[in-house]
Design a protein that fits this description.
The structure holds two protein chains of two kinds. Chain A is an all-alpha fold. Chain A has 16 helices and no strands. The chains are: A mainly alpha, B alpha+beta.
């Protein structure tokens, strides 16, 4: 906060010093800096700057969330101008219908996939943090999938997994074209979809890790090398402890991400063949069966589950202060 | 300190918003009928027409209709808004007052809510003699919408392909249909039936619309409101879903249903790579276009009724497509009504589309020539109890007009999910019966 306010007061540097000097000349007993600091307008400046982002945040995040929480206590069907308040009925229905939570089993596929994803990202980030030929090209290649729109990825991979599609033709080059229906049964479909999500999100984790690794001072590697540490030992005792907070963040994102998977399965299978996730189920309750109230309650419950999981995780694995130096 | 006051401010705002979230509501008092003007020259204003036919907006067809319309009503300006995701978007817009002057009634709007959204068009008693499908929008004796067109239920098939396989007669029972499909598959190498599993909708409405084709009963769909076993032995849904199960189970459908594509399936059928699909008569025109584009003979595309006979005759349900209605908040109700009347009676839209006109007096379209020639009984589906049926259907979360439950049926049939058809029907019956208890009252 203090950091922003230092740079905050307009206008540009020369004019500013002029202004302060002139004012300082008038009441010569106060040091120039203090006077502007105590000025009431000065406390307002950060708020003026925050006005636009806050307005956007409130309009597009807090108002809808507030509305959603309100809907979860009504029996609204999503269209009708009338809705009646039903208290906790929607939540009661959720608790008495355990089959609505069975879809979380699908999340296990994505959870397993995110473990693979973090491992792969960590591997590539470590590799590319060392001096390597064409490393910027590889960085680009690895990060590129994350830049593509999720809907486009869904369509691309639909053709990829099609009968006789890209995957089948590549496999048949190696003589392994079995004509397997990749999205044909629940196990294979969920594995394939989770694979797509690994492909998409590895780039993001990779960039986070790479940034953290590069912030480790170079002298430490030199010192480690002088002490005769191998690459693995450098990774184990220097890099991993150095980027621990980022790994922790990635794990939290991975867990909350796998609980709320939506885009890729919704576009590719629409939740058919046992690929339905909790969010797809919620969307169907709201927009197919017109149970907006119940669906809002589902969304609130999902939010609470994610908050709870994150809280437990923070309790079990508290963030240690990184202290390399 | 600054941090604290910020979070406090946020908390207060959130709490306030949560409390204030209960906006909306309130019904306008517009009870007046949207009547057509007596003198066409007197009515004026700009009306906005919402449509799902973005293709007709883009290629200027609708503009040409509007120009024709202006010859009779010179002072009315008609604007069109084509919406790709019609259902999803209009449903949300209907939370405000601004959802056009003329619109197609979205499926999500509960029938009982029609009087809150749309201006009545007249008494059903007098309108039903002139128009088909009025009971679909009849609430309390008044009609709220007029169908753009209707379609007959049936199978689109490649006639040349079936002839090549040596089949010239329509199959008259599900068993015959399966035998014929097998023969087509064996003798021509084509995919006998294409489910369009991935796109979903070809599994939902075409199959559910066949309720009534099986029993030849116009009230078969209404009867769902008072049964606790819609999938019981011998019922329409039992026959329909068993047929779909058998087609897939016997390997007569596409190899990998999870990656199907509707647009390309049209060309595949036209080229004879696919032999049949259960759709509606609306699809015939599109298939013939696809045949023309693929350099094939459009007359190869045939249309046959659902493979069941009742008393030695085929039946086909006639169902209404989208219905046009007038926004109750519209400032130009007369002009809006004039457009609907002109569009239904004078535009020739349904004939161009090869669909059944909403006017009783209009002849059957050329696309249904095979049906009229072969004396297929057209059963206009009664919609008297649709509201109750939909309420039960939604409460049970089955979705007769949604793909999910038939996608599961196909998965069971091809062994992708474990379970038997009998158990599935028992489960569906149970869910329906339970929902009937809660939603029916």
């Amino acid at each position: 906060m203090t950091h922003t306010t230092h740079t905050a007061p307009p206008p540009g540097p020369p004019a500013k010093t002029d202004g302060i000097r002139r004012r300082a000349g008038r009441r010569n007993h106060v040091p120039p800096h203090r006077s502007w600091r105590q000025h009431p307008l000065r406390r307002l400046t950060p708020w003026l700057f925050l006005l636009v982002p806050l307005a956007l945040l409130i309009t597009f995040t807090y108002v809808p969330v507030g509305n959603m929480i309100y809907y979860s206590f009504t029996d609204w069907d999503g269209v009708s101008p009338d809705r009646s308040f039903v208290g906790g009925d929607n939540y009661r229905e959720l608790v008495t219908r355990p089959e609505l939570f069975r879809v979380f089993a699908v999340s296990l596929y994505y959870l397993a996939a995110s473990a693979v994803q973090i491992a792969a990202a960590l591997y590539f980030a470590t590799l590319l943090s060392f001096d390597l030929r064409l490393r910027n090209l590889f960085k680009g290649i690895l990060f590129f999938p994350y830049l593509i729109n999720g809907v486009a990825i869904g369509f691309v991979f639909l053709y990829f997994f099609q009968d006789g599609g890209t995957l089948d033709s590549v496999l048949s080059l190696f003589g392994a074209g079995g004509g397997h229906a990749w999205l044909g049964d629940p196990r294979s479909a969920n594995t394939s979809l989770a694979g797509v999500s690994v492909w998409r999100f590895t780039g993001l984790n990779f960039v986070l890790f790479l940034g953290a690794i590069q912030s480790i001072p170079g002298e430490q590697y030199e010192a480690a090398e002088l002490d005769g540490a191998s690459r693995w030992q450098q990774f184990r005792h220097l890099i991993v402890p150095g980027i621990r907070p980022v790994i922790g963040l990635s794990v939290i994102l991975a867990i909350s991400g796998s609980l709320s998977v939506f885009e890729i399965p919704y576009i590719m299978t629409g939740g058919a063949t046992g690929t339905q996730t909790f969010v797809i189920q919620t969307v169907k309750l709201a927009f197919q069966f017109n149970k907006t109230g119940l669906a809002s309650a589902c969304a609130v419950v999902l939010l609470l589950i994610i908050l709870a999981v994150t809280w437990i995780q923070r309790r079990l694995l508290p963030d240690e202060k990184v202290d390399l130096v | 300190m600054g941090k604290k006051s910020l979070s406090a401010a946020l908390l207060t705002t959130t709490a306030m918003l949560a409390a204030a979230g209960c906006g909306g509501g309130g019904t306008p008092g517009g009870d007046e009928t949207a009547a057509a003007p007596l003198n066409p020259k007197s009515v004026s204003g700009t009306i906005k027409v919402l449509t799902n036919r973005t293709d007709l907006v883009q290629d200027g067809t609708l503009k040409r209709y509007a120009a024709e319309f202006n010859k009779k009503y010179p002072k009315v300006k008609v604007e069109f808004e084509g919406i790709t995701d019609y259902e999803g978007e209009v449903k949300i817009r209907m939370n405000t007052d601004k959802y056009g002057d003329v619109l197609l009634i979205p499926g999500a709007v509960a029938k009982g809510d029609y009087p809150k959204f749309f201006a009545p068009l007249g008494d059903t008693g007098s309108m039903k003699d002139e128009y088909r499908f009025t009971d679909k929008t009849d609430v309390g004796g008044r009609t709220y919408g007029i169908a753009t067109f209707g379609t007959a239920d049936g199978l689109v098939y490649n006639k040349a392909l079936w002839k090549k396989a040596g089949i010239t007669k329509w199959p008259a029972s599900p068993q015959e249909f399966l035998t014929d499909l097998k023969a087509v598959g064996d003798r021509t190498g084509a995919t006998p039936y294409y489910t369009n599993f991935k796109d979903g909708w070809p599994l939902s409405s075409p199959w559910t619309n066949s309720i009534g084709s099986v029993s030849c009963d116009s009230r078969a769909s209404d009867a769902l409101a008072d049964t606790d076993a819609p999938w019981g032995q011998g019922t329409d849904l039992n026959v329909i879903d068993t047929l779909l199960y058998d087609v897939v189970h016997d390997g007569l459908s596409e190899k990998d249903p999870t990656t199907t594509n509707w647009e390309s399936s049209k060309t595949l059928l036209a080229k004879g790579k696919i032999s049949s699909m259960l759709l509606g008569s609306w699809a015939i025109t599109q298939m013939r276009d696809a045949a023309k584009k693929a350099g094939r003979n459009p007359d190869d595309i045939g249309f046959m009724p659902f493979p069941v006979q009742k008393g030695g005759k085929f039946c086909a349900t006639l169902v209404s497509d989208y219905q046009q209605a007038v926004n109750i908040h519209s400032g130009h109700k007369q002009a809006a009504r004039a457009w609907i009347d002109w569009f239904t009676q004078k535009s020739g839209y349904s004939a161009t589309e090869g669909a059944v006109s909403a006017l009783r007096a209009a002849p059957m379209p050329a696309t249904l020539k095979e049906f009229t020639d072969n004396d297929v009984t057209m059963v206009e589906r009664s919609e008297a109890d649709t509201a109750e049926v939909n309420a039960i259907d939604n409460a049970a979360e089955i979705g007769l007009y949604k793909p999910d439950y038939r996608q599961k049926l196909v998965d069971l049939a091809r062994g992708a999910q474990k379970g038997s058809l009998k158990d599935y029907f028992t489960d569906l019956n149970k869910r329906w019966a339970e929902a009937e208890q809660t939603a029916g009252s």
